Amino acid sequence: MEASLKVLIADDHPLMLQGIRRALEASDDIDVVGEARCGEELLALAERRKPDLVLLDLHMPGLHGIECVAELKQRWPEIKAVVISASDDRSSIDSALLAGASAYILKSVSPVDIPSVLRQAATGAVYHVPSAPAPRQDGPAVPSGPELTPRETTILRAVADGRTTKAISQDLWLSEHTVKFHLTNIYRKLGVSNRSAAVRYAYENDLTGTSGALSAVTA
C-alpha cells in the first residue's frame, strides 16, 4: 500500500480551512498533518511536520504567500507548494510559479477536485487550474480561434521551431516553471493534450507565424 500524501494547509479564514480539510480527509491517500493561519506559523509547522506538500492561501497575515513559497523552496526543496487563491490575475499566477509553486488553484474550484490537483502536483505537474467556465449562451455557438496572449503565441512558435522548455526559458528570461504554466494554458486553449499535438494544430491553423526575436515580446 502506497504511503499517504502528507499535506499541510494554510489559510487565515477558518471556514476555508475547514472546507479544505473536509475535502482532503475524504481521500484515503491524503493525510492532513497540520493547519496554519499565517505565514510564520506555516513555516514553523513545515519544519516540525515535514509535509510532502503545502497548500497555502496567497494572502495571509505576516509573510505573503509568495514569500512563503520562496522560503519553502529554499529551505525544503523537496516539499511541493500549491497556492490556492481568489485572485486570477496573471501577475499573481506568474509570481507564484516563479517562486516555485507547483500549481495555482482558484478558490472557485470545486472542493472535490482539490485532492486530484494535489496528487498531480506531488508528481511534478505544474499548472494553473482555471476558474469555472463562462455560463452557456442561448443560440448557436459562434466559432472562434484560440485567444492566445502574445507570450503564449511566442512560446508556441518557439515550440514549433523545436525549442525545448529549458531553451525557451533561457531565451525569454523565464523560469521553466513559468514556461510549463504557459504551455498548459496553450494546450487548454487549443484543445490538445501534448506538445506534438500543439505543434500540429499550430501549423494546420497558421498560428506559427515567423520565428525569432523571442525576447522582444513582453507578457
Question: What does this protein look like?
Answer:
The protein has 219 residues and is of the alpha/beta class. 44% of the residues lie in helices and 14% in strands. Helix 6 (150-160) packs across helix 9 (195-204) and helix 7 packs across helix 8. The longest helix is centred in the last third of the chain and has 15 residues, at 176-190.
- How many DSSP-defined strands? 6
What is the 3D form?
Answer: elongated
Helical element count?
9
Element order, helices and strands? EHEHEHEHEHEHHHH
Please give the largest β-sheet: 6 strands, parallel
Q: Strand order, main sheet: write it out.
A: 2-1-3-4-5-6
Q: What is the typical, i.e. mean, pLDDT?
A: 80
> What CATH architecture of the largest domain would you give?
3-Layer(aba) Sandwich
Fraction of residues in helix:
40-55%
In terms of per-residue confidence, which ranges show pLDDT below 50 for 5 or more consecutive residues? Answer: 129-144, 210-219
The CATH superfamily of the largest domain is identified as: Response regulator
Overall tally of structural domains = 2
| Structural class label | alpha/beta
CATH classification class of the largest domain: Alpha Beta
Gyration radius, in Å: 19 Å
Strand residue content: 5-15%
How far do the termini sit from each other?
A: 45 Å
**CATH topology category name of the largest domain:** Rossmann fold
